[in-house]
Amino acid sequence: MTDARPAPMPLLENADPEIHALLGQEAQRQQDKIRLIASENYAWPAVLETAGSVLNNKYSEGYAGKRYYEGQQQVDQVERLAMERLKSLFGVEHANVQPYSGSPANLAVYFAFCKPGDTVMGLGLPAGGHLTHGWKVSITGAYFNAVQYGVRKDDHRIDMDEVATLAREHKPKLLWCGTTAYSRVIDYDRFAEIANEVSAVLVADISHISGLVAGGAHPSPAGKAPVITSTTHKTFRGPRGGMILCDAVHAKAIDRAVFPGLQGGPHNATTAGIAVAAKLAGTPDFRAYAAQVVDNARAMAEQLMARGIGVVTGGTDTHLVLCDLTPKGVPGKVAAQALDRAGIVSNYNSVPFDTRKPFDPSGLRLGSPAITSRGMGVDEAKQVANWIADVIESVDDDGVVERVRNEVLALCNQFPAPGR
Ligand SMILES: *Cc1c(COP(=O)(O)O)cnc(C)c1O
Fold first, then answer.
1. What's the predicted TM-score (pTM) here?
2. Are 139 and 217 in a shared domain?
3. pLDDT at 5 over 90
4. 55: domain range?
């Protein structure tokens, strides 16, 4: 074990030793384990500082220059900086940085363009889509008439012909593209063509890949999708939050939908963190980071396949690798739990056309953003893939799990978690 994180929060330690101890243990876990959950990352340490700042003390309902409370001398500047940086980073006309997270950002888009019962279209959850794109248990599936498209049976890629057919048939108000468990480039040109043909508003939800888009490692939907939503805490490395980027014609509707439509006061400390992350995402270093994230995911996918583990679509263009463990005869949950014991943290996940149940599926979802933030490269990514294969081939062998655990710890010690 490395040394425990030196207590960085003496005031918390004094006020609440119990929570202080848990935060220390969590910091240690984030140092000692290889974190492969595709939606997670290490936020920039400077972002963590803003998240705990005095901006938490301020209420700012409204938008810069049009607030309902006085005392916005600094907050207005913070919010304008965040907006301006995002606009130039992503090449868009308007940015709203107030959504509390990705799901509220998406809900605001529904509120801006739809009435309850209107038809919307998105990628189904079992095919790699997000709950908020119209899945039945979500408010977006309950309050709207959600039509779901899927992936092709043969190659598991998004079926653009099906998208076109369903769009012509159902004429959705919103056409969502964006994924949480899909590893291939999204064809924004084709989506835009289909949306234009049926007069739908194309919404690109780039929550998982916004860091890759900002860093030039995935095509940008800017100029193709008039509305773009994202979380700010995944590949983007910002604070937990959300954003909506859009064409100027939609700015008013989006702003009204976020506030006063859906939310009250914005989380100003988060806004500041988004501004910081947007600044850092505009650097040459971040471009190199985004490219390395993809290289590392590719290296992992190739090595996993070489070891006989199925990879959905046969590889990846992004940060994400969706494994199909069927060839190994090991359920995803069993694998994820054994891997966690070995110090490798991932999540079990359905694969397209999964024959197993969602709570006990065939797949395992992996991602490279967090290991890349620690400075790991292709060699380490391959090593990690080999450990994953070792554990999956011996889920019940405590000796193998223990050996991998020790080797993982040694590697983690060479690559300190950001912020330590
Ligand atoms: C993560 C994610 C969201 C939701 O973000 P939360 O911050 O968890 O609400 C929405 N859409 C996609 C595609 C995502 O990956």
1. 0.97
2. yes
3. no
4. 50-281
